[in-house]
Design brief:
Rossmann fold, three-stranded parallel sheet, two-stranded antiparallel sheet
Length: 164
């Protein structure tokens, strides 16, 4: 959970301290730099949608990140680090969060998959009107995926100016 040192953390007018933690986590989804997998197969990590619209949407999401239709049957032990990273992104958005907190979401990915993930997350942001905080050490990438950039140095945030 995110605990403020000072100030308040809110999403669409709801303060984090006023929402039950499980509900808050569904609305403010965190993608850590290294994902954790606690079940044996991929499918055990994803909620099963009973709604046909979301089933079809989920299939398109897996396809957008270049996964085969049988990916839910795959063993976690057979996944590469890049596959785990892309699946962690899909697992994150399964709850349809209104805010994405992304810590190095394209770490361990090749150039083709970096492009795929950037496009996928931008589409998600636009379709869901989601807020996105994207942490990266790649300044060029931040120029592609953000309209505002901040530098964290010596515990201080400074907004960087750049041409769009």
């Amino acid at each position: 959970d995110i605990d403020p040192c000072t100030g308040k953390i809110s999403l669409h007018g709801t303060e984090s301290v006023l929402a039950p933690p499980p509900e808050w986590r569904k609305q403010a989804g965190l993608l850590p730099s290294e994902s954790v997998w606690w079940f044996d197969t991929v499918g055990e990590h994803f909620p099963v949608s009973q709604n046909e619209y979301w089933k079809q949407k989920d299939i398109k999401c897996f396809e957008a990140l270049s996964f085969e239709t049988d990916v839910l049957n795959w063993k976690i032990s057979r996944l590469s680090s890049g596959e785990r990273q892309r699946l962690a992104i899909l697992r994150l958005i399964a709850n349809r969060p209104k805010a994405l907190l992304l810590d190095e979401p394209t770490a361990n990915l090749d150039a083709e998959n970096i492009t795929r993930v950037e496009k996928f997350l931008e589409t998600y942001r636009l379709e869901n009107q989601a807020a996105v905080i994207w942490v990266s050490h790649d300044i060029e990438q931040l120029g592609r995926v953000s309209n505002r950039r901040f530098l964290l140095k010596n515990s201080t945030f400074t907004e960087l100016q750049f041409d769009v």
